[in-house]
Amino acid sequence: MPTSLPPDAPVLVLVTPGDTAGVAEEIAAVVRVDNPQIEVRLTSVSDLADSLPSGRDAIVVPLLTWDDPLVLAEIGKAVAAAGSGAVVTDALGPHPLLAEALHIRLAERGLARADRVRLLNVSSPVDAVILATVGGDRAVHGVQATAVLLASRLTLPVVSASLDSEPGVTVAAQRLRAAGAERLAVAPCLIGHEAPAGIVQQAAAAIDAGHAEPLGSHSAVAELVARAYGSQLAT
Question: Residue 145: how many CB atoms within 10 A of its CB?
Fold first, then answer.
């Protein structure tokens, strides 16, 4: 990311599939503080057409951990309806930074141990991790690469599973325990606006597992937003 940009540089339009209040607002605030040279706008998918700048380029960054085709289609429709030439980037994941943030969230709950400097796994209080997402089968496949990246960090089995469809977290837990993994943890591959409050806790309680918090406004999320913008700017 350049340290300075011309006044007519593209606006970064951060678009969330949920409410702009709460976690999305926090992420936008971190992006602004870390990148004061960028004009950042935050909007929901439903308000995107009205939030795109007139007569100026824009780079739209979806606040998603995977390329959800339904949300991306709605974003595309909104850009077209506005008659804008705005460019829409891919989702924030998969990316090693996303796996790092998931690792940290697990460590914060005592579900993974990490070296303070390199964040490499030393020894783990769990035998396997379920990477939980919402969006059905498509979402499970969409976060599979992130599951592989997280597994390489933890040196533990990591499987992706759905929180809102079957076969879900319960089936994943049964398979892992049948393979000898008794102590399980649920890591939500969610920013926080994608699912109802409490869904992760309920899923973890149902399988007698610990759980991490959603990614929220972790600094890695804000960095991935800036990187998505910077990569598009470079092209």
Answer: 16
